[in-house]
Amino acid sequence: MPGAETFLQSVNSAKQAPKPVYGVIGEEDFLRREVLEALIEYVRRVRGQPDVVRFEGDTAELAEVLDELRSRSLFGGTRVVVLTDLGERRSLLESQRDRLAEYAHAPARDAVFVIEAAKLNKNLRLSKAIAATGERIECEPLGPKPLARWLSGHAKKQRLEMTPEAVEFMVDTVGNNLGMLAAELEKLDLYLGPPEQGKKRRVARNDLEELLGFRGAADAWALVDAISAGDMRRSLEETERLLRNGEPAYKLIGLLTFKLRQLWRGAGAVAEGANSSGAAAAAKVPPFQQSTFAAALKRYDLPACRAMLYELSKADRKDAILEVEQALEFLVITLCNDQAARRHA
Question: What is the CATH number of the domain that holds 172?
Fold first, then answer.
């Protein structure tokens, strides 16, 4: 049962016939779309241009899906039938799971059936049928190392050669949403213009700050400093200033996370005996920000950094209820109150 990363690496060179059934399962939407596109391209390369028919799980009828799977392609090639079911109430995977499992156990030879779903219990009869006659591809959110590989690999497809520092900075700033990361790469590609013949465009961290509107990364230290002092008024003023200057709220949340991770790394280095220069080096702070970093570090210890990073980790959950700018303001107020309480404890 390969993960999406393994599948995407191997499918481009695969020469064997496609399997008759695939489960593209997981909560990372962008990865599922990538795998689906790669699967269809794989079928085209091995068997010729396929007929692709798509069904939505909340509106499809079982008879229609089965009819498509058992019908011959108009051009005599392979038919690819995609059933996308993301857990709606009236779900074909819920109501007709056993019938779908019966098909998966004895699939048509000239069709490829792809079930795309955010979740599908591995103990279900349908899951076992997919494993027996086909393949399940896991599309779960990527961890730090796979995420860095994914970003670096996507950049190379656009002939962008990102330094490790640039990859880390973009992930820390934008987050692990693959769709947003892909959008930032597209923006970067447009900013840099077409590459010279046979050459890649090298991207360093300072290029991201300059070209993609991440200049707020430096200005965010003023906000971090205000929060560290427990100064509510100044914190909200700095937040408003950054928003007025065009920094999107979701990026500011990412920037706060990035700065606090730097402080957490620096505080850890200090706890092990490092001086301010050693702490800045451990946190990968550029020279022009080291004095600001050293001042902020005096107000943060490891427990404070952990507590604030925990609050930041909850910001995405608040975004589902609040507008992003409201969630940012709520977050700044919470961090400020927590730091003020620590300073007066």
Answer: 1.10.8.60
Q: Which token pair is 161?
A: 């050669």
Q: Which of 106, 138, 170 is the last residue of a domain?
A: 138
pTM of the model: 0.62
- Pick from 62, 50, 5: nearest CA to 31: 5
* 3-state SS assignment for residue 2: coil
245 three-state secondary structure:
coil
Give pLDDT, residue 116.
Answer: 94
* Structural domain ending residue among the three candidates 98, 120, 138: 138
Task: Say which amino acid occupies 176.
Answer: N
- What pLDDT is stored for residue 100 in this prediction? 92
Joined together, the tokens standing for residue 189 give 């590609």
pLDDT recorded at residue 127? 93
Other C-beta atoms closer than 10 Å to the C-beta of 115 total 25
CA dihedral in degrees (137, 143, 144, 147; nearest 10)? 30
**What is the DSSP secondary structure assignment for residue 72, as one 8-state letter?**
P
pLDDT per residue as tens digits for the range 120-169 = 999 999 999 999 999 999 999 888 889 999 999 999 988 899 999 999 88
DSSP state of 16: S
The predicted model gives 54-79 an average pLDDT of 83
| Cα 262 to Cα 255: distance, rounded to the nearest angstrom | 11
- CA dihedral defined by 276, 280, 285, 286, rounded to 10 degrees? 60
Q: How many domains does the chain have?
A: 3
Residue 184 vs residue 66, higher pLDDT = 66
- 32 shares its domain with 102: yes
Beta carbons of 160 and 188 less than 8 angstroms apart: yes
Query: For 176, what's the count of Cα atoms within 13 Å in the CB-facing half-sphere?
Result: 15
